[in-house]
Amino acid sequence: MPELPEVETMVRGIRDAVEGHSITDFRRCPCACKPIATQPEMDEIRELVVDRTITKVWRRAKRVVLELEDGSAFVIEPRMTGLMLLSDPPDIEHLRFQWELQRGTKSHSVWFWDRRGLGTLKYFDKEQLAYVLGETFLGPDALDMTLPLWKQQLAKTTREIKIALLDQKLVAGIGNLYASEILHRAKISPKTPANRISTTRIKRLAECTDAILRTAIKYEGSTLGDGTYRNALNQDGSYQNEHRVYAREKLTCPDCETGVIKRIVQAQRSTFYCPRCQSR
DNA sequence: ATTAATGTTCAGAA
DNA sequence: TTTCTGAACATTAA
Q1: 3-state secondary structure string, A2-50?
Q2: What number of helices (H) and strands (E) belong to chain A?
Q3: A77: nt with nearest C1' to CA
Q4: CATH number of A142-242
Q5: Which region, left, alpha or beta, applies to residue A184 given φ > 0 means left and ψ of -120 to 50 means alpha?
């Protein structure tokens, strides 16, 4: 589930407890879940990382990067239900990986927890890392977008803007929830072909993307009804209280107070919007 | 029993 | 070449 704001929250939540710490052990948790890495891989990785220091914790799009002193790194993609946690996992059955860390005489652990198990964890050397996080697979980070970049990227496709916003090669970090929220605030119809959006609207899109993502980070992301997403201490985020359209079908639009929020399906995924505010 | 869920990827078709 | 569709991954809850 996590999109850019939730992943950024995870990164900030674990940063102080991870940066500058050395790895004393890295293991797969003894859960009954289907493993997302094979044992030979695990042994190999463990060999390479034990006694190394994690120097940087950062985010690229919707991925968490734990970078070691030699430039190699763990790249964790939480996908739908993955969480990076320092404590209090929602349950112990779905803990997947554990890093045992140490600084001085103090030691503690960081976990990757994932209920559905769609998340991935990989370990790359410095060169591979640059490649897998580079422009071959990912467009510019949503927080690094500028007006000229938006123009350039949107000109590349005729797809409906809502669908284009989910294309990580066009712009990286936006997911299904924030795509609806961003387009609503920018007053752009989700059905508008990306390459036919006026400059005025692109400008609004740029501003609203930035504003919404930054605000959502401030609120530590969105925790929905199923409560899947939580911060590093297993606490709820609060941006869900600020949602204007997402999962609010049939409710009155909080902006125009006249339109009724509609749910449509685009590329097999729900889009929520106000037909009155977002007529084109 | 069925459906949908904040994500990504792949195959095959249009 | 680009775009679209459906299925797949695994799990839970309405």
Answers
A1: CCHHHHHHHHHHHHHHHCCEEEEEEEECCCCCCCCCCHHHHHHHHHHHC
A2: 7, 10
A3: B7
A4: 1.10.8.50
A5: alpha
pLDDT tens for A78-120 read 999 999 999 888 888 899 999 999 999 999 999 999 988 889 9
- Where does chain A hold its CATH 1.10.8.50 domain(s)? 142-242
CA-to-CA distance for A180 and A243, rounded, in angstroms? 9
pTM of the complete model:
0.95
Domain topology for A4-132: N-terminal domain of MutM-like DNA repair proteins (3.20.190)
Chain C nucleotides close to protein (CB under 7 A) are 2-7, 9-14
Neighbours of A103 (CB within 10 A): 14
